[in-house]
Specification:
Blueprint (H helix, E strand, L loop, with lengths): L2 H20 L11 E7 L18 H9 L1 E7 L5 H10 L14 E2 L7 H7 L3 E6 L5 E2 L28 H11 L6 E6 L19 H4 L8 H30 L6 E7 L14 H4 E2 L1 E4 L8 E8 L3 H8 L14 H5 L14 E5 L17 E5 L3 E6 L32 H6 L5 E5 L17 H17 L19
Parallel strand pairs: 1-6, 1-7, 2-10, 3-5, 4-6
Antiparallel strand pairs: 2-8, 2-9, 7-9, 11-12, 12-13, 13-14
Helix pairs in contact: 5-7
């Protein structure tokens, strides 16, 4: 049977099962897949052993990637928690989501999450740890992640006082009725700051190969990165225990498991910034029903693609509002380790506001920014270049500037200026020769054609998704941040 026909038949079967399941509140069809979404907090794509990084060990992530689908070029919607999670849950670009585009904003009333749609279709849903946010969910608004399972707290070790993800997932599994399909969100806080700095993994290493070019090779940076990597390993340890619980429950084989992160690492020119270190994230998907396992996909995908993927696999209609594209074709295709569709050769992201009151004082100004990512180039459009991209001096509140000074407090160059200085309206980086995006070539005449092409592709995307800043560059300024 042709693969396309197989996919159509599968969708038809789960649709019929969905209808049958909707007719009974106590009996659930066994064949609808479960969904387990597991997300770390602030992890760049490079920092798994699957990606080849030598100073971190992530065996459980690697196993899922090796036996499932590994997406080499996966991108978050924004280099900030709340807008990224808004895009994941809604299947939309973050700029389509009103106050959901702002950290510490309000949960947007019109935004429908895939969890709510699955719950309406008979799935039991819930979350543990960090789901949507940080932000406010007003009274009467349906929680986007479903009911919380957060009663168990870690009581030992370096992570004492944090939500015990493993125990709470076990609690959720115990609550399921026989054969009831589920969709559960597990949101870690690793490797988010603050850190406990102990070992230095970088002693004796060639740091030009393991530390990005935009960070100084100082002991302070080495210790900070070492602590960050230790938390990634803790996340992977939890992941292993979560997978074991799933196996013990008998639900492993029919569960679509997604492991990713919300944005890049919390370091200068990464988190809160639209260089690749801020938005390119790890992504592995496993399901026993994958046609081919162990495929490394080089197509560009975005986390807004997760919601329509889950809905399609559940046999549900994908809302017209979802701009994300289902990844289900990868589940059934025989050869997806190369670019196969023109629309999968590019990704988009952007930024509005992260920390409150760091730019413009009491005005609490945004920094409207949109970006394009291709195999060879990164294009960034800064809509109000007269503002400070990482916050006003002298604090530069989004620059992690304490990583960029010597013991006397003097800025280490060129690192300090790269992270803190104002930027031109357009930035263009040639990843073939400049993978860490150090040299802006937007003004170089040799790149004029590339610049024009990416500028136009960004505009087309914004027009297709009705980005409000095309009409009012400060549209998102109306949405306040709350303490």
């Amino acid at each position: 049977m042709p693969k396309t026909l197989q996919k159509v038949c599968f969708t038809l079967v789960v649709t019929i099962l969905l209808f049958l399941g909707a007719c009974s509140s106590t009996s659930y069809p066994k064949d609808r897949p479960n969904f387990l979404f597991i997300i770390s907090d602030d992890q760049s794509w490079a920092h798994t052993s699957k990606a080849g990084y030598p100073l971190v060990s992530t065996p459980h992530f690697d196993l899922l990637a090796d036996t499932g689908l590994y997406f080499q070029k996966a991108f978050a919607a924004a280099p900030s928690c709340t807008p990224s999670r808004s895009a994941i849950l809604s299947g939309q670009e973050f700029w389509q989501l009103e106050s959901g585009a702002i950290l510490l904003g309000d949960y947007p009333k019109p935004m429908v999450s895939y969890q709510s749609l699955l719950e309406d279709a008979g799935y039991k849903v819930g979350f543990t740890g960090k789901a949507w946010g940080p932000g406010r969910i007003a009274s009467g608004i349906r929680a986007p992640g479903g009911p919380d399972y957060n009663r168990y707290i870690s009581e030992e070790g370096d992570f004492k006082g944090e939500v015990d993800l493993v125990a709470n997932f076990a609690d959720f599994l115990k609550s399921l009725s026989k054969d009831q399909p589920f969709s559960f969100w597990i949101g870690a806080t690793d490797p988010h700051r603050p850190y406990l700095m102990r070992e230095n993994r970088f002693l004796g290493q060639d740091n030009t190969k393991v530390i990005p070019e935009f960070l100084p090779k100082t002991e302070n940076v080495e210790l900070q990165l070492s602590a960050y990597l230790a938390e990634i390993e803790h996340f992977d340890l939890d992941l292993g225990q979560i997978l074991e619980l799933l196996k013990q429950s008998g639900r492993f084989d029919n569960t679509v498991i997604v492991v990713t992160s919300d944005n890049g690492m919390p370091f200068s020119r990464a988190k809160t910034q639209n260089y690749t270190w801020g938005v390119q994230i790890p992504l592995a998907i496993y399901w026993s029903n994958l046609e081919n396992k162990g495929i490394e996909v080089v197509d560009f995908v975005q986390l807004s693609d997760i919601a329509p993927t889950f809905l399609e696999l559940a046999g549900l209609e994908i809302p017209a509002s979802m701009s994300g594209q289902s990844l289900a074709p990868y589940f059934f295709a025989t050869e997806r380790d190369r670019l196969a569709e023109q629309e999968r050769d590019i990704a988009f992201a952007g930024f509005e506001r992260h920390a409150a009151n760091i730019r413009g004082g009491e005005q609490n100004l945004n920094y409207p920014r949109r970006a394009v990512y291709t195999t060879d180039f990164v294009y960034i459009r800064n809509y109000v270049p007269e503002r400070w991209p990482a916050g006003d001096p002298p604090n530069y509140g989004e620059a992690y500037s304490y990583l960029l000074v010597d013991k006397s407090g003097t800025g280490l160059e060129p690192f300090f200026s790269l992270a803190t200085s104002k930027r031109p309206a357009e930035e263009l980086y040639d990843l073939r020769v400049d993978p860490d995006q150090m040299v802006n070539v937007a003004a170089n005449a040799d790149y004029a054609e590339v610049l024009e092409t990416l500028r136009n592709r960004l505009l087309a995307k914004q027009q297709a998704t009705q980005d409000p800043i095309l009409e009012d560059v400060d549209y998102f300024q109306q949405f306040p941040s709350y303490p």
